[in-house]
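2024-03-11 09:14:02 INFO worker-7 job=invfold-0412 stage=load source=structure_tokens
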């Protein structure tokens, strides 16, 4: 069964998340409010129409070099998980494509697998595992 995925770039690589796991994609408005005693992967917190959204650098979560947050660059993919909003800093959205989900790699791994989309390799991410790993960056707060 085909699933619709949002495709995006991070650190020069192509990634995808299921469309149903994404609440919205927004342009970041730095500077973000710094969150004390958190990992460097945490960009900070932003105000999104009166709602506080924690923003994490997705590059750092998937083992790529961290991104520098600058005004007018990048996008934030907002996930809604357990009534908590989580923003993932990405380079930019490439589009939405339907394709067959890859076989699951590991139980709690953020990478679900790799799919071929229009002849290009795309790393498919698991939204629940990303949310859990991101939550751990805040010391379980």
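2024-03-11 09:14:09 INFO worker-7 stage=emit residues=141
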């Amino acid at each position: 069964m085909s699933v619709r995925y949002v495709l995006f770039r991070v650190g020069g690589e192509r990634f995808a998340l299921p469309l149903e796991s994404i609440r919205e994609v927004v342009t970041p408005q730095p500077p973000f409010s710094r969150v004390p005693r958190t990992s460097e992967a945490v960009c900070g917190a932003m105000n999104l129409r009166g709602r506080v959204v924690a923003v994490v650098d997705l590059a750092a979560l998937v083992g790529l070099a961290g991104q520098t947050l600058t005004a007018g660059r990048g996008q934030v993919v907002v996930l809604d998980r357990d009534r908590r909003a989580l923003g993932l800093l990405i380079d930019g959205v490439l589009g939405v494509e339907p394709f067959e989900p890859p076989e699951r790699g590991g139980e709690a791994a953020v990478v679900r697998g790799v799919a071929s989309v229009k002849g290009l390799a795309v790393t498919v991410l698991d939204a629940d595992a990303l949310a859990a790993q991101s939550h751990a960056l805040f010391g379980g707060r």
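2024-03-11 09:14:09 INFO worker-7 stage=report msg="Residues 3-137 form a domain with the OB fold (Dihydrolipoamide Acetyltransferase, E2P) fold (CATH 2.40.50.180)."
2024-03-11 09:14:10 INFO worker-7 job finished
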